[in-house]
Amino acid sequence: LVQAISQLQVGAAAVARIHQVDTLPIESFELRKETRSRPAQPGPAGIRFDKVWFGYQDTTAAVHRNLSFQIPAGSTAAFVGPSGAGKSTVFALLERFYEPDAGTITIGGRDIKEWKLRRLRSMISYVEQDAPVLSGSLLDNLLLADAQASSTQIDDAVSRARLSALVDRLPDGLDTLVGHRGTRLSGGERQRVAIARAFLRRPRILLMDEATANLDAINERFLIEALDDLRDSTTVLTIAHRLSTVVAADQIIVMNNGTVDAAGSHTDLLSASDLYRTLAQTQLLTTDEPVKEIA
Ligand code: ATP
After folding, report:
1. Which residues form the ABC transporter domain (predicted)?
2. Nearest CA to 89 among 74, 73, 100?
3. Distance 239 CA to ligand 1 centre (A)
4. How far apart are CA 283 and CA 86, in angstroms?
5. Dist. CA 230–CA 76, nearest whole Å
6. Half-sphere exposure of 285 toward its Cβ, with a 13 Å CA cutoff?
7. Which atom from ligand 1 is nearest to the alpha carbon of 90?
8. Is the ipTM beyond the 0.95 threshold?
């Protein structure tokens, strides 16, 4: 009985937290989490930036200068570039935390200014660098994405996010307490919990800021496979810090100084872009293997 009561308390706390998140006003930049409602219209959405100019303030230099690129629906794009190139700002503009000074951004062929803000954001999930896990059970953490999810949907999301082995290993499976005062999950596991939430929500667009901290090779492979599984429902944009994710992307967009320096596949870019070659050899390479052999 004591155990049942304590479980009920944990469940009630989780429901309260979900309610808290749901009743927040249109979220702030700091709370752009995967806890938004499901997109009303399913299916991946294509994205286009057309001659976009943007500066954070009128007085400062433009961050985006005539930025143009196109990402087909259901494809994966990896953004790479030096620090300050404007990669995160692409994500902030897509979610309309700021408006471009000039140019157009379209999602699904429609100017994002024409989408209702809530509708626009319900299409997009954002998985941040250090994906948070709330205290409560692993199940509570998944239900944040969709409080109505059935156990079949949960099982499916767990398996697609390559979390089944973790669930099997945890003492109480999905009911194991995680996060604060619970079992500590690794960075890779937390990121896959966030991906599992994306499977439950099926956003039309997933924005992912990859962790800069090195994941081990197994976690890295899991993550790439999981992202690949999302293709039928979701267009995936990654700010990539690891060569393996970059190589797996359909398109690599190399940004420099607020504009596109080059775009294409890893192999194309190795010969076409000096900047990409330098980035691949310095920023992105986390193993001892030479760049060409990974291609
Ligand atoms: P990093 O790889 O270091 O994360 P990035 O390519 O993602 O860099 P952004 O974060 O988009 O680059 O930043 C581009 C420029 O805009 C930088 O000079 C940064 O200092 C500036 N910037 C970013 N966010 C803001 C903000 N909220 N207000 C003012 N300036 C900002």
Report:
1. 47-282
2. 100
3. 13
4. 16
5. 10
6. 17
7. 11
8. yes
